[in-house]
From TrEMBL:
Main location: cytoplasm
Bilayer-crossing regions: none
SUPFAM superfamilies according to UniProt: LDH C-terminal domain-like, NAD(P)-binding Rossmann-fold domains
GO cellular component term, pick one: cytoplasm
Species name: Oryzias sinensis (Chinese medaka)
Name of the molecule in the record: L-lactate dehydrogenase
InterPro entries with a match to the protein in the record: L-lactate/malate_DH (IPR001557), L-lactate_DH_AS (IPR018177), Lactate/malate_DH_C (IPR022383), Lactate/malate_DH_N (IPR001236), Lactate_DH/Glyco_Ohase_4_C (IPR015955), NAD(P)-bd_dom_sf (IPR036291)
Pathway in which this enzyme or protein is active: Fermentation; pyruvate fermentation to lactate; (S)-lactate from pyruvate: step 1/1
Length: 178
């Protein structure tokens, strides 16, 4: 048997382009844990990391790229534009302060969890939203905080203020400090 038979093509090769892409927005601990999980489970051909903190983003992307030798993922890229929020802003025609990204979904979930702990209720009965950017600049929407539809701000008009006896500002701080 000649070696040429070993190298003969049995079927056409698949195109080289990316067939599936996963984007992780935020390269904090949760984002990087998600990125590594995606890579280890071989869920995509291309992994994109997005964050506004350029130095951290560059470092995390390089770590993953250097470790890619041991993975099947063909491409790992990084950029600092949350493209979906940017596109929504451009298409909507709204001023930029009226378009809010969904990067604080996890913060909102943490807030609801902490509300549940405070009231000894399941978090699904607690409702509240953290908007803006993750971190110190995030904003708790105190007017929307409710338990089973009952507005907490109506029961406590000082909710979230410095002189709030229930210290709701501390709950928001726990969310930020994560």
């Amino acid at each position: 048997m000649s070696t040429e038979k070993l190298l003969s093509r049995v079927m056409e090769a698949e195109p080289v382009g990316s067939r599936s892409k996963v984007t992780v927005v935020g390269v904090g601990m949760v984002g990087m844990a998600s990125a590594v999980s995606v890579l280890l489970k071989d869920l995509c051909d291309e992994l994109a990391l997005v964050d506004v903190m350029e130095d951290k983003l560059r470092g995390e992307a390089m770590d993953l790229q250097h470790g890619a030798l041991f993975l099947k993922t063909a491409r790992i890229v990084a950029d600092k534009v949350d493209i979906l929020t940017y596109v929504a802003w451009k298409l909507s025609g709204f001023p930029r302060h009226r378009v809010i990204g969904s990067g604080t979904n996890l913060d909102s979930a943490r807030f609801r969890h902490l509300m549940g702990e405070k009231f000894q209720l399941h978090p699904s009965s607690c409702h509240g939203w953290i908007i803006g950017e993750h971190g110190d600049s995030s904003v708790a929407v105190w007017s929307g905080v409710n338990v089973a539809g009952v507005s907490l701000q109506k029961l406590n008009p000082k909710m979230g203020a410095e002189d709030d006896g229930e210290r709701w500002k501390d709950v928001h701080k726990k969310v930020v400090d994560g």
